[in-house]
Amino acid sequence: MATAELAGKHLVLGMTGGIACYKIAELTRLLTKAGATVQVVMTEAATQFITPVTMQALSGHPVYTSQWDRRVPNNMAHIDLSHEADAVVIAPASTDFLAKLVHGMADDLLSTLCVARDCPLLVVPAMNRQMWQNPATQRNVAQLRADGVEVLGPDSGPQACGEIGDGRMLEAAATFEAIASFFAPKILRGRRVLLTAGPTFEPLDPVRGITNRSSGKMGFALARAAQQAGAEVHLVAGPVALETPWGVIREDVQTAQQMHDAVMREVSGADIFIGVAAVADWRVDHASEHKIKKTADRALPTFTFVENPDILASVAKLPNPPFAVGFAAESGDLEIHGEEKRARKNVPLLIGNLGPLIFGLDDNEVILFEAAGATKLPHADKQMLAHTLIAEIAKRLPTRA
Ligand code: C5P
Question: Which structural domain range is residue 93 located in?
Answer without folding.
Answer: 10-183
